[in-house]
C-alpha cells in the first residue's frame, strides 16, 4: 500500500512546474526552494540521516555505551542473533515466534470483527454516528492509560474474572489473573491489540461500503440472493483492497510496535510475551555495562529488513488483487 | 415484515454488545477514579457505592499531576507547532516550487516511513547524549518532529498540489513573492489539512512513552505517561490513583476527538488510502 502511495506521489511530482524564464529569476527560484526546505532538511540530517548511519555502523561493533572505543566485529552480531550465541539465539527465536503469532492473529481477528461490524453498522439508520464515535474511542485513546485500565480489569480480583463468574463461566476465569498465567498472557494481549485496531479497520470498511453502488446490492436481493451470499459474492471482493491495507498495517504494527508488551507484561511471565521490538529495547537500554548495544542495533536492522520485505510482498499481492 | 424487523433488532443487539466491549475499560477507569482507597480494594461494583472526588483531587495536586500535565502540554504543543512550521514550508516547496534536488529530497523524507522507530531509538539517544539535550524537553521534541516527517510531508504536499495553480500565477502577476503567496493563499486554503496534521501529531505525542521513558530522568520534567508509570511501579499499585491519573491523561484526548472528529476521520482515511 505504502509503496503504491509513494509511486503515485512521485508521478505527480514529475509534472514540472513552469520554469522561471530568465537566468536570474531561475537562480532566485532555486534559492527560494532551498530556503523553504532548509529547516526540514537540517532536522533530517541531524535526527534522521546521522542516527540511521551511526546505528547501522554500530550494528557491526560491540559497545556498552560508556567506553570511548567501539570494538569492530564485522557481521558477528547478526550471526550471534541468528544462531551463534547460545543465550541470544534461543531468546530471539522465542521472541520471533511470539511476534509471528501476533502478526497472524491480530490482522485475521481484526478483519473477522471489523467487516461484519461495518456491514451491520452500514445497514442501520438510527444511532449510526453515535455508535461510530463509540467504536472509535479505543483508537483515539490507545496508549499507556488504556493499557493500565486493561491491567486493572484483568487482575486476579478484577472485573473480567467477576463478570465471568457472574455469567456462570467461572471455569474460564483466571485465579492468577489473565496476564499472570503463561498460557493466557499472549492471547490476552492479542485480543487487546485487536480491540485497539478494530476502530480504524471498521472506519476503512465503512468508507469502502459507502462507495459501493446500492443498486448492485438491491439487484442481487431482487434476484433472491441471501444476505450472506451478498456479503461473500459482492461485498467481500469489492472490499479486498481495504482488507489488504488492514493486513499490511497489522503486520507492520506487529513488527514495529511493542509498547503494549512493555507496559502490560514486560515480556513476562517467563518470556511468554516477549516480542522482537521489546527484545531490542531491552538490549538497548537495560543491560547495564554489558556490551549489547551492537547486538541491539543489529536486531533493529533485522526488524527493518523484515518490515521492508513484508511490505514489498504485500504491495505485490495487492497489485495482483487489483 | 416481521422477519426484517427481527433482523433489525438482532443488528442493534450485536452493535450494542460491541459498543459495550469498546467502552469496557473506560467504564472501569471512571469507576476506579471515583472510588476511595478502601473501596477499590473491595472491588466488585462498577458504580461506586461511596463516590468521592478526593482521589482525583489528590492525584491532581498532591501527586503532582498538575505539573506533569503542564509538561505534557509543553512537549505536545511545541511538537505540533514545530511540525506545522517545518513541514508546511517544506511541503510548499515540494508541491509548487522548482529547484534541483526536489524529487530526491521528497523521496528521502517519504522513505523514512520504512524505518521502524525502534531501529533508530538507540542512535537517537546516543546522539542526544553527545549534543547534551538528552533528558530535556527539547530532546523529546526534536525527534518527535522528525518522526512525523513522512506522513506529514505526504499529506501536506498532496493538499498543496490540489490548490489550483492559477491562483498562484495570478498572485505572482500582482507582484507577490513566494513567502507572501505561501502565507496568504496556501496556508488559509489548506486549513483542514493543517488541523488534521495537528490532531494526528498531538494524540500520539501526548501518549508517547517509549522514548520519554529512556530520556527523562528528572521527575520535575515528567510528562503524564511517566507520572502514571511512577504510580504503578510501587509495590502494591493503588488502582484508584492509577485510574484517576489515567482519566486525567485520556480526557483531553477524548475532548479533542469529540470536537475535531471530522478531521480525525478524514486524516486517517486519507493517510491510509492516499
UniProtKB/TrEMBL annotation, chain A:
Bilayer topology term: Multi-pass membrane protein
CDD domains listed in its UniProt record: TM_PBP2
GO terms, biological process: transmembrane transport
Residue ranges occupied by any ABC transmembrane type-1 domain in the UniProt entry: 96-314
Keyword flag Metal-binding: no
Keyword NADP recorded: no
Membrane-spanning parts: 31-53, 100-121, 133-150, 185-206, 288-313
Keywords of this entry: Cell membrane, Membrane, Sugar transport, Transmembrane, Transmembrane helix, Transport
Superkingdom of the source species: Bacteria
Entry's Gene Ontology cellular component terms: plasma membrane
Region (Disordered): 1-23
Entry-linked Gene3D superfamilies: MetI-like
Protein localization: Cell membrane
Main localisation: membrane
Pfam families from the UniProt entry: BPD_transp_1
Sequence ranges of Basic and acidic residues compositional bias: 1-19
Family as reported in the entry's similarity comment: Belongs to the binding-protein-dependent transport system permease family.
Name of the protein: Multiple sugar transport system permease protein/raffinose/stachyose/melibiose transport system permease protein
Source species: Streptosporangium subroseum
Lineage: Bacteria, Bacillati, Actinomycetota, Actinomycetes, Streptosporangiales
TrEMBL record, chain B:
Annotated compartments: Cell membrane
Mode of membrane association: Multi-pass membrane protein
Gene3D superfamilies: MetI-like
Keywords: Cell membrane, Membrane, Sugar transport, Transmembrane, Transmembrane helix, Transport
A Gene Ontology biological process term: transmembrane transport
Keyword Nucleotide-binding: no
Alphabetized InterPro entries for the sequence: MetI-like, MetI-like_sf
Keyword Transmembrane helix in record: yes
CC terms in the record's Gene Ontology section: plasma membrane
Record-annotated membrane-spanning stretches: 9-27, 73-97, 104-126, 138-160, 242-260
Annotated ABC transmembrane type-1 domain residues: 69-260
Family recorded in the similarity comment: Belongs to the binding-protein-dependent transport system permease family.
UniProt name for this protein: Multiple sugar transport system permease protein
Amino acid at each position: 500500500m505504502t509503496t503504491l502511495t509513494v509511486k503515485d506521489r512521485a508521478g505527480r511530482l514529475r509534472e514540472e512546474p513552469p520554469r522561471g524564464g530568465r537566468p536570474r529569476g531561475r537562480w532566485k527560484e532555486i534559492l527560494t526552494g532551498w530556503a523553504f526546505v532548509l529547516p526540514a532538511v537540517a532536522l533530517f540530517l541531524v535526527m534522521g540521516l546521522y542516527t540511521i548511519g551511526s546505528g547501522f555502523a554500530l550494528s557491526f561493533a560491540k559497545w556498552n555505551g560508556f567506553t570511548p572505543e567501539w570494538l569492530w566485529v564485522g557481521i558477528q552480531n547478526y550471526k550471534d542473533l541468528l544462531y551463534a550465541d547460545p543465550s541470544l539465539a534461543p531468546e530471539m527465536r522465542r521472541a520471533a515466534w511470539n511476534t509471528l503469532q501476533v502478526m497472524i492473529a491480530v490482522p485475521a481477528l481484526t478483519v473477522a470483527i471489523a467487516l461484519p461490524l461495518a456491514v451491520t453498522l452500514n445497514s442501520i439508520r438510527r444511532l449510526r454516528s453515535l455508535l461510530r464515535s463509540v467504536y472509535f474511542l479505543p483508537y483515539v485513546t490507545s496508549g499507556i492509560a488504556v493499557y493500565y485500565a486493561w491491567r486493572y480489569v484483568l487482575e486476579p480480583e478484577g472485573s473480567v474474572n467477576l463478570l465471568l463468574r457472574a455469567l456462570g463461566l467461572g471455569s474460564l476465569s483466571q485465579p492468577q489473573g489473565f496476564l499472570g498465567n503463561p498460557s493466557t498472557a499472549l492471547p490476552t494481549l492479542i485480543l487487546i491489540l485487536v480491540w485497539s485496531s478494530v476502530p480504524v479497520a471498521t472506519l476503512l470498511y465503512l468508507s469502502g461500503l459507502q462507495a459501493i453502488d446500492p443498486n448492485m446490492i438491491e439487484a442481487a436481493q431482487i434476484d433472491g440472493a441471501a444476505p450472506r451470499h451478498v456479503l461473500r459474492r459482492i461485498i467481500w471482493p469489492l472490499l479486498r483492497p481495504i482488507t489488504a491495507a488492514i493486513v499490511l498495517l497489522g503486520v507492520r504494527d506487529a513488527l514495529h510496535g511493542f509498547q503494549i508488551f512493555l507496559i502490560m507484561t514486560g515480556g513476562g511471565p517467563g518470556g511468554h510475551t516477549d516480542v522482537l521490538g521489546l527484545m531490542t529495547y531491552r538490549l538497548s537500554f537495560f543491560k547495564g555495562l554489558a556490551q549489547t548495544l551492537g547486538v541491539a542495533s543489529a536486531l533493529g536492522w533485522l526488524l527493518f529488513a523484515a518490515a521492508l520485505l513484508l511490505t514489498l510482498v504485500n504491495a505485490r499481492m495487492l497489485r495482483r488483487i487489483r | 415484515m416481521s422477519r426484517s424487523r427481527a433482523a433489525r433488532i438482532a443488528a442493534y443487539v450485536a452493535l450494542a454488545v460491541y459498543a459495550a466491549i469498546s467502552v469496557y475499560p473506560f467504564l472501569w477507569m471512571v469507576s476506579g477514579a471515583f472510588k476511595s482507597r478502601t473501596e477499590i480494594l473491595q472491588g466488585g461494583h462498577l458504580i461506586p457505592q461511596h463516590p468521592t472526588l478526593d482521589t482525583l483531587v489528590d492525584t491532581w495536586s498532591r501527586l503532582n499531576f498538575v505539573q506533569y500535565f503542564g509538561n505534557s502540554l509543553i512537549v505536545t504543543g511545541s511538537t505540533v507547532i514545530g511540525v506545522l512550521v517545518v513541514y508546511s514550508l517544506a511541503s510548499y516547496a515540494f508541491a509548487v516550487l522548482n529547484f534541483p534536488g526536489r524529487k530526491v529530497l521528497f523521496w528521502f523524507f517519504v522513505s523514512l516511513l520504512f524505518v521502524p522507530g525502534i531501529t533508530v531509538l538507540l542512535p537517537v539517544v546516543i546522539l542526544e547524549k553527545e549534543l547534551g539535550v538528552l533528558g530535556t524537553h527539547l530532546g523529546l521534541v526534536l525527534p518527535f518532529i522528525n518522526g512525523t516527517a513522512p506522513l506529514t510531508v505526504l499529506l501536506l504536499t498532496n493538499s498543496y498540489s490540489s490548490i489550483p495553480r492559477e491562483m498562484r500565477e495570478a498572485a505572482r502577476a500582482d507582484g507577490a513573492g513566494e513567502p507572501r503567496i505561501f502565507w496568504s493563499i496556501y496556508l488559509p486554503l489548506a486549513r483542514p489539512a493543517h488541523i488534521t496534521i495537528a490532531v494526528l501529531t498531538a494524540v500520539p505525542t501526548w501518549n508517547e512513552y517509549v522514548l520519554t521513558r529512556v530520556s527523562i530522568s528528572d521527575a520535575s520534567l515528567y510528562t503524564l505517561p511517566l507520572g502514571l508509570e511512577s504510580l504503578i511501579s510501587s509495590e502494591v499499585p493503588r488502582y484508584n490513583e492509577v485510574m484517576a491519573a489515567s482519566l486525567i491523561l485520556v480526557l483531553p484526548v477524548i475532548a479533542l476527538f469529540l470536537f475535531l472528529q471530522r478531521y480525525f476521520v478524514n486524516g486517517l482515511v486519507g493517510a491510509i488510502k492516499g
